[in-house]
Amino acid sequence: MSPAPADTGTLAFVESPVQLLNVLEWAHGWARAGGGAPLTVVVLAPHDPMTRGQLRRMAELARDEGHTVRWEEARGGTTAPLRTIGGLTPLLRRAQRVVLGDPFSRYVQLLLGLSRARDLVVVDDGTATMEFIGQLARGERLVRWHRHGAGRGPRDLLFAPFAGAARRRLTPGPQDARRRRTVALFSSMPVEVPDGMVVTANDFAWTRSRFGPPRLTRTADIVGTSLVETGVVDADRYLTAVARLARAHGATRYFAHRREKAGKLHRLATETGLEVVRPDLPLELIARRGPVGRLVLSFPSTVVHTLPLALKGTGVRVAVCDIDPTWLTAHASPRAQGFLDGVTGTARDVQRLPGARPEPEPGARTKDPNTPVEPDS
Q1: Half-sphere exposure of 134 (CA within 13 A, CB side)
Q2: In terms of Cα–Cα distance, which of 94, 141, 100, 137 is closest to 116?
Q3: What percent of the chain shows pLDDT beyond 90?
Q4: What angle do CA 84, 90, 95 make, to 5 degrees?
């Protein structure tokens, strides 16, 4: 991997392909606005093979744009964190601007504490950005929305000082000429930022300029979700809902989320007849490159906000299927239903589908499932 230049002024930390995509979108807009030299992207590599594969493909695209990529095996053994932090400390000390994709990440929170940068930029990490902004505005500790309960284990208590320091760094505060600092958000999510935070809309201009327009197929595609893997949604209910969506809308392909387990996907393909596709890039790029269905069906997730932007002007319709409360597991966070409803309710330029409920009793009157869905007013 290419070493980071010694004089880098902007340092970006990413742990997922979507984060790196949004860093590239931010850098594209920053350059068009008269920004400086290409940035250095530090990939804090995860263990998951699918995520690593997509990150390597995204790293190639970042290098093609002139950016430097530094790949860190940050989780490669007991000594890896110390080695990673030690190697990055000089860069952190020199960086004037830090761009980060996951403010919930303990790794990022720790590295943020070593930085002297006055300019901080948070780019989208999917729908988690909505929860981050909400917690920041309410002055709460940063906790991922799908974590169950409010308890704090020994590791949480041990890390609490670093997490608190990171939250304070990310909270806009009073500024003066001597200690001026900025906290900015680059997002495609519908959020209301705290006073003092600068927000810039991500319209996926880089994606649209580099890929497509796609060829459209006559069938529909379904976008997978990792809600089963995170313990939010029951697997049997989820597979039943996918099967009913496929039948109702003539879907033939299922684009798997990078965190979906192989066993679940094998069962899904067997029970639904859908072709399971494992994308090698974030779905926004896959869909823009094509081919893609004229109708894309999704459950509440990031793509109901991002795909309409990435596919603007192509004629593709995006529809979102609500998560029925009966699908939630006993282990789901009490915040899960409200958060998922918020993801769906705030999506723009999408059609709204009710949760795929059980088949009606014989003789019951119901709407034809093949009737085209009209957009909500």
Answers
A1: 15
A2: 94
A3: 55
A4: 110
d(CA 254, CA 246): 9
pLDDT digits (tens, 9 = 90+) for 92-112: 999 999 999 988 888 888 888
Tell me which H or E stretch contains 85. Answer: helix 80-94
Tell me how far the alpha carbon of residue 188 is from its chain's centroid: 10
Tens of pLDDT, residue by residue over 272-326, are 999 999 999 999 999 999 999 999 999 998 899 999 999 999 999 999 999 999 9
Q: In the chain, which residues have pLDDT < 50? A: 1-7, 148-150, 176-177, 357-377
Contact indicator for 302, 18 with CB cutoff of 8 Å: yes
**Intra-chain end-to-end CA distance of the chain, in Å:** 50
The pTM (predicted TM-score) of the whole model is 0.85
Six-digit token string for 78: 């007991």
Burial of residue 259 (number of CB atoms within 10 Å: 0-12, 13-18, 19+): middle
SS3 assignment, position 217: strand
Q: How many CB atoms lie within 10 A of CB 348?
A: 11
Q: State the burial class of residue 303 (Cβ atoms within 10 Å of its Cβ: 0-12, 13-18, 19+).
A: buried
pLDDT tens string 13-37: 999 999 999 999 999 999 988 877 7
Cis peptide before 213 (omega within 30 of 0): yes
Other Cβ atoms closer than 10 A to 245: 23
Spatial distance between the Cα atoms of 72 and 84, rounded to a whole number of angstroms: 7
